Structures are given as C-alpha cells and as structure tokens.
C-alpha cells in the first residue's frame, strides 16, 4: 500500500507548512533550530530587518486568545520584512456566522501568502492547509489540545541553548513535564520533539486525572508524585492548569493542587543542580509555580519568549522558501 505523504511536506520531504512536530525528523528539527540560531542576532542589530519575506502578506488568524504567540509571530514576520495583517476575530464576520474556510477564501482573494492560525478545534490548521492554493503556507499557532509546534520548537531551542552552557546535549538529559498534560498541546509537541532529538529520560508528572493514556507507549515515564518525578532532572517544564478545557471537576482545588504539584524552591532543590525551569505561559502563580521560582535565577521563562521570535522567523522563512 502506498503511504500518504504528510500534508506539511512536499514531495522532496521539505516543509511547506508547519502543522505538527509529530513525524518530523531530527534533521528537520535541527534545520529549524540552526536557522533560528542564525536569526537571534538580528534582534541586536540597529536595523532589525531581513528581506526574506519582502512583498509577502502574512495573515495572523487567532480564533483563540494569545499574548506571546500572536505578538512574536507579528514581530518575526516584520523582521523578515513581510506585510502583516492581524484579523480581529471578535470584530470580523466570523461573529456573523462566516465559516473559517470562507474567511480563508476571502483573505486568499486578497493575495495572502501565509496564514498563521490558532484555533480551539484540533485539526483546524490541517483543514486550512488542505484548502489553500499551492503557493500559500500555513503555520499552526496552536490547535485545541493537539499541537503547538512553534512552542515546542522554541522550547527545544531554549533547552539546547542553556544545556550547551552546561556541556550537555539532548542525548544527555532528563526532562520532566509537570502538570495538566491531558489538555496541553504544548506537552504533546514537546514530547514529540524531545523524543525525536534523543532525550533518553522523559517524564510526565501530575495527578492521574490530568495524565492522558498512551504516554508509556511513547517512551515517557509517568509519575503521580512530584518529588519523585522531578528528582535529578536537568529540565522542568511546568504547565498551566487549563481550566477552560476541563469539563467537570478533575481537581480538588487550586490550593490543594499547589500543595501536591506546585513548583516551590524546596521541590526545585530535588532536581539536578542548575536545572532550568520553563513554562510556556501564561502562568498561574501560586497554582502550578511559586512566584520566587518563576522569578528565580533558574527560570528561563522570559528567555523562551525572546527565542520565540527567532524560532518563528526560522519557521516562516523555511516554509516560504519551499515549493509545494
Ligand atoms: N505560550 C503561549 O501559547 O502563550 P500565548 O497563549 O500567550 O500565545
């Protein structure tokens, strides 16, 4: 039987969209991370511009709220000299019942070259990628619980950057992802990327009600006790409790959650010396993470945001450089 080609790759195996990290090779991930590294210094230049997307129109379509992702995609596209249009979904004709695909068709009629899409429905960016013209590129900025590929990539960039300073590579690391993994598209993208990059010990830590099935099959060790789960790890990725995606009571209370799974200074001391603390944001201080840890010297949370610009520049420039 012929295998169906993944919709984000062309016949040469090059990225034409970025929809998910699942199925991408180590070479794909390293190409994006290396390209991002070449863009990091653009932010330090007096003129923070490269001509790579000059004359191209990038449309940001955020059907769900965002601070970090939407803003850094806009900055990234502008640093690549694209014309950027942010559709205000609340004030758009979506509110009058226009379908997402009709919105895409109309924006395509305005000569869009790239759509950056966040949507509460898993698979929405895949659907768009199936309907756009061959020269148009789609980048997933987070779809439902499914995937947040650019967050996964900027997390990999951050880990690679800080672990290199400690003389370590992905193949040397213990990484713990802690919290609401069930509802987290970030966790799914991180797990795919960390596995592909060869992390030998990947842990999922949280209450059993917030851990999805199938983690062990993906090579992830599961811990329901925080102190055991973060012992000796090099990297701790804390996740937000996604109350907006929870149906029914999966937790006793925020206070009790913090008692059992909140990252405090005392708990952080159980990890490897100089372990880094990450969080995709937005944070619930005092729920999944104590403020003194979030603002402490081991936290690299704001570095993640900064690296997000270069990583999104890399993704947009690479997909735009490949033909369907
Ligand atoms: N990490 C992340 O996706 O943050 P925003 O929701 O603010 O974009």
Describe the structure.
By secondary structure, the chain is an alpha/beta fold. It folds into two domains: 26-148 and 306-320, Rossmann fold, CATH 3.40.50.1370; 149-304, Aspartate/ornithine carbamoyltransferase (Rossmann fold, 3-Layer(aba) Sandwich). The chain has helices spanning 26-39, 68-79, 100-108, 124-131, 149-165, 185-196, 226-229, 254-261, 265-268, 291-294, 301-320; strands at residues 57-62, 83-87, 114-119, 137-143, 174-178, 201-205, 220-223, 235-238, 276-278. It has a five-stranded parallel β-sheet. It has a four-stranded parallel β-sheet with strand order 2-1-3-4, sandwiched between helices. Helix 4 links the parallel strand 3 and strand 4. Helix 1 packs across helix 5, helix 2 packs across helix 11 (301-320) and helix 5 crosses helix 11 (301-320). It is globular, with a radius of gyration of 20 Å. Phosphoric acid mono(formamide)ester (CP) is lined by residues 66-69, 142, 151, 280-282.
Q: What small-molecule ligands were found?
A: phosphoric acid mono(formamide)ester
Query: Describe the biggest sheet?
Result: 5 strands, parallel
Overall geometry comes to globular
> What is the count of structural domains?
2
**CATH first level of the largest domain:** Alpha Beta
CATH topology of the largest domain: Rossmann fold
